[in-house]
Amino acid sequence: MPFIDSKITLPVSPEKREVIKSRLGQLAGILSKPESFLMVGIEDNYDLYMGGKKLEKGAYVAVSLFGSASSSAYEKMTGEICRLYEEELGIPGQSVYVTYQGVKDWGWNGRNL
Question: Which residues in 1-113 belong to E strands, given as ranges?
Answer without folding.
Answer: 2-8, 39-43, 49-50, 53-54, 59-66, 96-103, 107-108, 111-112
